[in-house]
Specification:
By secondary structure, the chain is α/β, with parallel strands linked by helices. It has 16 helices and 16 strands. α4 (136-142) links the parallel β5 and β6 (149-152).
Length: 456
């Protein structure tokens, strides 16, 4: 049996990074095949050493490289996060295009590919992760690797019209077609990529995921990523979770909790969500004093100007709501710009009557799945989910909303608050079956099976 070779921007070289989600899925596959993991060391240096750092842990070999300041800026901060991220989240207006940034992005992809190729052996399979390495397939082929290469995109893939806003869209698409298996979070993302190939390069969508383009035949499918479902359900009843629920319970004073948990990112639709909360209190007076909204939003990419502007906008919106409706013993909207342990979050999910997952665009959104698994079966809450989250394709028994229609979102929050326990249970039971059966292990096995990896 060949090895699995993983490539991602950040690895799980630090054992504390193997606590959940993707790291667990990749780690289990690597340990079962005696694989290797390539990526960034996390260090920024004046000059990169001639040889990368290598070490082993539990049978997995790590190969990590430092970045120079110029590489970190051009590859990560600029092209990955100020060009690809906004364009793939349909925010072309926020993209900062620049040829030198793409050159650095390409150079880092090529440099890491050059570290990988000499270490590959016959029978190996390569699994590349996310938007940092869209060019990796092309450079691995250029280096002489002819074996299977899988790629999984954790963020959305935009419509062809939006993707073509990238000046380098053709070079990226050709490199992506060098992967053997392309994985997307949703059927919509997969359809967008294939339509781009069909409309621009006369590709043939052959069915069953197969696509012929550029003289090659590749497999492109949707592989919706899951969570460690049963483990998260147990976390929701842990002592840490119960303590967190007790702490916020004192603040709630018997009021219903409406909860949001998101990174502070413009793709999450937080200003629109705050506006919807304001309209909830404006137009549904019975909720005043009876509902407390808590938004947890740890800062994200604080070096990027757009995120600083978002923080200011949220501060202003929260101030308006609390100024209009707050009282001596009630804060309508609490906004916490910090992160919390996942067990703490599990405890908050469990007691929240409503969870707001309303991104403007999201690859999947695992908060939605965590909320489902954290619920009390006897008294479950209601998930309100954006139609533009990848999770909406699987979790159709949530209340699906258009996050841009803020009054409709406010109406839906009120609907969720008034929903009978019988309807809540019916919806939750269907959601739970989906999340529990299509978990992180299911996702990993589904992808690797198509890549031809036979796990021990």
């Amino acid at each position: 049996m060949g090895r699995l070779i993983a490539i991602s921007n950040r690895t799980a070289a630090d054992p504390s990074a193997r606590a959940g989600g993707l790291a667990v899925a990749v780690w289990e596959s690597l340990t079962s095949t005696g694989g290797m993991w390539f990526g960034w060391s996390g260090n920024i240096v004046d000059e990169v050493a001639a040889e990368p750092e290598t070490f082993s842990d539990e049978g997995v070999d790590f190969v990590v490289t430092d970045f120079t300041e110029a590489e970190h800026d051009g590859f990560y901060l600029q092209y990955a996060n100020r060009v690809i991220w906004p364009v793939f989240h349909y925010r072309v207006d926020l993209a900062h295009f620049g040829n030198t940034d793409f050159e650095t992005y390409a150079a880092v992809n090529k440099r890491i590919a050059n570290l990988v190729v000499p270490r590959l052996e016959d029978g190996d399979s390569v699994w590349v992760h996310d938007y940092h390495f869209l060019l990796m397939g092309g450079y691995l082929r250029e280096g002489g690797w002819t074996g299977p290469i899988g790629f999984f995109l954790h963020i959305p893939f935009p419509s062809p019209e939006v993707f073509q806003a990238l000046p380098e869209h053709e070079q990226i698409a050709r490199a992506m077609a060098d992967f053997s298996v392309l994985g997307f979070q949703s059927k919509t993302d997969r359809a967008n990529f294939v339509r781009y190939l069909v409309e621009n390069y006369d590709a043939a969508d052959e069915g069953d995921g197969w696509v012929s383009v550029f003289g090659r035949r590749i497999r492109a499918n949707a592989y919706p990523i899951g969570i460690e479902a049963e483990k998260f359900a147990k976390a929701a009843t842990s002592e840490t979770a119960k303590t967190a629920a007790t702490r916020i319970g004192r603040f709630l004073g018997g009021r219903n909790l409406v909860l949001g948990v998101d990174r502070m990112d413009y793709s999450k639709g937080l200003p629109q969500r705050f506006e919807a909360v304001g309209k909830l209190f404006d137009h549904f007076p019975t909720t005043r004093g009876k509902v407390s909204v808590t938004q947890i939003a740890p800062p994200s990419r604080s070096k990027v100007e757009e995120y600083r502007d978002l923080r200011i906008q949220l501060d202003e919106l929260a101030g308006r709501i609390n100024g209009d409706y707050g009282d001596l013993d009630w804060i309508p909207l609490r906004y916490l710009a910090r992160s919390y342990d996942r067990r703490v979050l599990a405890g908050l999910y469990r007691i929240a009557r409503v969870c707001l997952v309303t991104p403007l665009r999201d690859g999947m959104n695992l908060v939605a799945k965590e909320y489902v698994m954290a619920q009390d079966p006897d008294d479950p809450g209601v998930l309100i989910l954006s139609q533009f989250a990848g999770a909406a394709e699987q979790l159709s028994d949530a209340l699906i909303v258009n996050p841009h229609d803020t009054f409709s979102v406010a109406e839906t929050i009120n609907q969720a608050l008034e929903m009978t326990v019988e309807e809540r249970r019916t919806r939750w039971e269907k959601l739970r079956r989906t999340v529990a059966s299509e978990d992180i292990s299911w996702w990993r096995q589904k992808f690797l099976r198509d890549l031809g990896v036979n796990e021990a």
